[in-house]
Structure formats: C-alpha cells, structure tokens
Automatic annotation (TrEMBL):
GO MF term list: metal ion binding; oxidoreductase activity
Family to which this protein belongs: Belongs to the iron/ascorbate-dependent oxidoreductase family.
InterPro entries: IPNS-like_FE2OG_OXY, IPNS-like_sf
Superkingdom as given in the UniProt entry: Eukaryota
Gene source species: Obba rivulosa
Keyword annotations of the record: Iron, Metal-binding, Oxidoreductase
Residue ranges annotated for the Isopenicillin N synthase-like Fe(2+) 2OG dioxygenase domain, each copy included: 222-319
Protein name (record): Clavaminate synthase-like protein
One Pfam family here: 2OG-FeII_Oxy
Length: 377
C-alpha cells in the first residue's frame, strides 16, 4: 500500500526570525500545503509530549465517569458550545447534505470514506473548553461566548482548568503563528488572519470514543466531514484512525505522526475556505477503527490494563471573531479563480461555486453550520 504523507512545516524556523529568507520559504510551503492538501504537519519544539500525556490522561479519566455525571456538564441551551456533548448527538453534515454526498460519489471507490448514509449520529463525545478572549465591544453573538464548565468530581476539578489552559495555550500559540505564516505565504500582511481571529470563540475540544463499545473494525467514530472553523490543530492521539482527503487528488491519507518529536496536525476549515474564496478548501476527514487502531487497543490494554480504553483526540478549533465580516479577500479570490479550473478539485472534479461564499458575519456562518450538524435547533 502506498502511503502518501503530509508536508511538514517548521514553526521553529519562523519563530527564530520571522523576516528571514528561510522563514519566507517555510511560510510559502505552509500556504501551498493548505492549498494542495487542506492539511499539514507542524513541527514546534515548544510542544511537550508530557503536557499532551497529562492532558490525555485527565480527559480519559473525565469520560470514564458515569453517564449521569457527564450529563450535568451538558449545555444544550448554548448549542453545546461549552461543556460536554455526549455520544449520538452530533450528526455528520454529509449524511444529510446533498453536495457532500456528491463529493463522496465522485471519489474513486477505493478512496471513499466508510459509508455514512446509514450512520448517524456520531458515537463520539466531546468537551468544549472556551479559550477565546472576550471582545471589548458589544458582540452580536453572545451565545457563542459563554463561560466554561468545570466538572464537579473531586479527582478532576482542581486540575481541570490548569491542564486545559496549559495544553490549550500551546496549541493556540502554534496555530496562531501558523496563521501568520499562511498569511505571509499567501502574500498578505502577517497579522491578517491572526487579527481577524483575535476575539474568536476558540475551543479546546477533546473528543472521546469508547473503544470497548465502539472498538470493532470499520466502526465510524466521526463520519466524513469538514470543520466549520478557520484552522483545526491536533496533538498526537494514542490511537490511529484519522483519515484525511488531499484536496488536489481526492486521495485518502491515513494520518501518521512521525514516531518521535514534537508535531501537531493542522487542517483548514470552512472559515478559511470562505475567506480565501475557495483557494484553500476545508479538508474532509473521518475517524474510523482500522487495523492500526485495533493494534493500538491491544498494545494499550496490555501495557496499561488499569487505564480506560477511550480514544481521545486533543483537538483545538481556532475561529475567526464572531463579529468579523466574512468575505473572500480579493487577491486570494482572484488566485482561486485562476487556479481552481485546472488544479483545485475534489476527486478530480471541480467544486468551485462562486455563490458558496456570500458576505456574512462569522457568527452567522457558524450558526448556519451548527444547524446542519444538529447541535442547534
Ligand atoms: Fe472534524
């Protein structure tokens, strides 16, 4: 089996001297990777594997609690945008969304995701921990800027906020610097994206799948979808299973982190697609139980028989500010027009549609997307 891999972008090179020629080369590489793949790996020597481990351990402990305890942390009245979302709440938009099913139909059958038409909702749980700065102005979208939930259990409550903040900050720093690199790589002022997301309702969003219940081969943990935010960044999971689709070829890529070292995975979301006029497309992805997942389950059960068998993904969703006016940036829009015709396709099919990117507030775009995935009435 051929194993396509993702470009690796070195954040250290950029941080050492953002205006150096080598930083510019690296920045262009980042922009090109997002245009071609909708995803990339970031090397950041500040990211600590110990912090990731501490974080994963705490989230495993959290989701190992009984259902009734977890339910106390649900906030449906806030569209689940803080606190916990339990399994079988979120539907992959694709299962109910015509254009998305079309994308799947047009993929080479060998490259298609697992069939989601009979699958919904997702058997995954999630916790949203807000990491945005409150805007210093009146926001039109206060519901998406609500206070965080801290679990009540004694073994969690004292370490919760500090652990979330520590891991979340390292992901937030990395993704904000990567956003600067992307802006430079696209020929824009360095702060373009970072400023647009200064008051974004960023979310540290660890996702949990119970591998005792959902650990058999070809179980869909998260069905084929794209993310609604600007950029998503993940640390290394203890269990493989994330597949992404390269936007230029429609080929499925099983995400593999280099075996050692400090790496993060970044994916483009819908807000970046919108702002770039489709030059960078939100990356499709799924999480499934495959042979590598099952191998990892066996290894983990024998090495750590006392630990809960829960797959945690240490996801962080970086958003644009809710009140930001979302409209394609003219220079990117022009580039999208020039290149889409022959290069930017999904599974060999051009998916360009100018009407996909009408101007709107970011908060409106988020609400539209949440309705599709059944998190908002
Ligand atoms: Fe996702």
């Amino acid at each position: 089996m051929s194993m396509p891999t993702l470009p690796v972008i070195d954040l250290d090179v950029f941080r050492a001297n953002p205006s150096s020629p080598s930083a510019l080369v690296e920045s262009k590489k980042a922009a090109e990777a997002l245009i071609a793949y909708g995803a990339l790996l970031v090397h950041d020597s500040r990211v600590s594997e110990d912090d990731n481990s501490t974080f994963l351990d705490m989230i495993e402990d959290y989701f190992a609690q009984p259902q009734e305890i977890l339910q106390e942390d649900e906030r449906p009245e806030l569209s689940y945008q803080v606190g916990v979302t339990l399994e079988n709440t979120e539907k992959p938009k694709c299962a109910v969304h015509e254009p998305c099913l079309d994308v799947i139909a047009r993929l080479d059958p060998a490259e298609r995701p697992l069939d989601i038409t009979a699958h919904n909702p997702d058997p995954k749980c999630r916790f949203f921990w807000r990491m945005g700065e409150m805007p210093p102005y009146d926001t039109e979208f206060p519901g998406l800027n609500a206070p965080n939930v801290v679990p009540k259990a004694a073994h969690l409550r004292d370490r919760w906020a500090s652990t979330m903040e520590k891991w979340g900050s390292s992901m937030k720093n990395a993704v904000e610097e990567l956003a600067e690199m992307c802006a430079i790589g696209l020929g824009l002022p360095r702060e373009t994206f970072r400023e647009a997301g200064k008051y974004g309702p960023h979310l540290l969003a660890p996702t949990a799948s119970d591998l005792v219940k959902y650990g058999s081969k070809d179980t869909i943990l998260a069905g084929f979808h794209t993310d609604l935010n600007f950029l998503t960044i993940h640390g290394r999971s203890r269990y493989p299973g994330l597949n992404i689709w390269a936007r230029n070829t429609g080929k499925r890529i099983a995400v593999k982190f280099p075996p050692t070292g400090r790496y993060l995975l970044v994916q483009a979301g819908k807000q970046l697609e919108h702002l770039s006029g489709g030059l960078i497309k939100a990356g499709f992805h799924e999480v499934v139980v495959n042979d590598a997942t099952i191998e990892a389950i066996k290894r983990r059960s024998s090495e750590h028989p006392d630990r809960p068998l829960i797959r945690i993904s240490s996801t962080f969703f970086w958003h644009l500010s809710s009140d930001f006016d979302l409209a394609p940036i003219p220079s990117l829009d022009e580039l999208a027009r020039k290149t889409n015709a022959d290069e930017i396709t999904v599974g060999g099919v051009i998916v360009e549609d100018r009407s996909l990117y009408p101007p709107m507030k970011v908060g409106q775009q988020v609400q539209n997307e949440l309705k599709h995935i059944a998190l908002m009435a």
